[in-house]
Write a structure and sequence with these properties.
Layout (H helix, E strand, L loop, with lengths): L2 H12 L3 E3 L10 E7 L2 E8 L7 H14 L7 E4 L3 E5 L10 H13 L13 E3 L2 E3 L7 H19 L5 H12 L12 E3 L8 E4 L2 E5 L5 E3 L2 H9 L5 H10 L4 H11 L1 H11 L2 H12 L3
Antiparallel strand pairs: 1-2, 2-3, 3-5, 4-5, 6-7, 8-11, 9-10
Helix pairs in contact: 3-7, 4-5, 4-9, 6-8, 9-10
Length: about 290
């Protein structure tokens, strides 16, 4: 898809002429542009020129959140495999004290949305990587097989991890029931809440972007936020007013659950994340 074809498709989807197409930073997959439209609000265009584009999965996830929750996410204008158009949300990156509170309220409400099983009716994505979501009644089985073992094996296949470290991950996966005695029931999670996916404007939360949704123990979401310091102590204090956080989460399970995003980052980036993985495994006794 060349630039002329891109502009034609944007025009057809929006009904407005493109008058500017400046690039935006961010995004693990493809190219991202802010699209200025004549007589209409700006949109964001994501373009994936690879042989196997999957932007339609991101569109599905945004639509699912928009239709099934009150989480602030951009509206989808077009959701093709190679071209995603979503509304542009003004953001200045200037955080205020209210952002942590607003995020806690929004995510606690999201985590009230339940399902009968962990997983999701279809595979989703995280950072452009496939996220297998075989629906499962048993959270320990789901997290062991479809998060830890699956991603560790993919890291091994990509030569990002050695066999000995993968065996340590698998040994821990065999012992998960020692750490997760009474898992929370399935809850809808955003799945990828690091700072770059949080849009704020004038000190207020505006939107959460780039989701990696499935139904999980919601502590997975809290652990991810802790790992990336996405929000501060006010977030946890406020969240716990809606949904109490077990003491064991802070003592053990946040380290356990963060093994998965560490593995994802090893698969994507390698480097220092391998040392972080080994260190965390050591603290968990494997």
């Amino acid at each position: 898809m060349n630039e002329h074809e891109l502009i034609d498709r944007i025009t057809a989807a929006t009904g407005a002429s493109v008058i500017g197409l400046p690039p935006l930073s961010g995004g693990c997959v493809g190219e991202v542009y802010r699209v200025h439209l004549k007589g209409a609000d700006d949109v964001v265009a994501k373009v994936d020129r690879s042989d196997a584009p999957r932007l339609d999965i991101e569109a599905m996830m945004l639509r699912y959140l928009g239709e099934n929750s009150a989480l602030p996410v951009p509206q989808v204008v077009l959701g093709d495999a190679d071209l995603l158009l979503i509304e542009y949300i003004e953001h200045d990156g200037q955080r205020g004290r209210k952002v942590d509170i607003e995020a806690a309220d929004a995510l606690a409400a999201l985590h009230e949305i339940g399902a009968e099983q962990y997983g999701f009716p279809q595979d989703t994505l995280i950072g452009g990587l496939n996220l297998p979501n075989q629906q499962c009644d048993d959270w320990v089985e789901f997290f062991a097989e479809y998060r830890l073992r699956d991603m560790a094996r993919r890291c091994l296949d990509a030569e990002m991890l050695d066999q000995a470290t993968v065996r340590r991950v698998e040994a821990l996966a065999d012992r998960l029931d020692e750490f997760i005695e009474r898992p929370n029931p399935p809850a809808l999670i955003h799945g990828d809440i690091w700072g770059g996916n949080v849009l704020v404007d004038q000190g207020r939360l505006k939107a959460l972007i780039d989701p990696a949704i499935y139904y999980a123990d919601p502590e997975v979401e809290l652990a991810f936020i802790d790992m990336f310091n996405t929000f501060g102590p006010r977030f946890y204090d406020r969240y716990s007013e809606h949904r109490p956080i077990a003491r064991e989460f802070f003592e053990i399970r946040r380290q356990l659950y963060n093994l998965f995003p560490i593995l994802v980052h090893i698969r994507l980036f390698g480097g220092t994340y391998v040392r972080s993985l080994r260190s965390t495994l050591g603290r968990l006794g494997v």
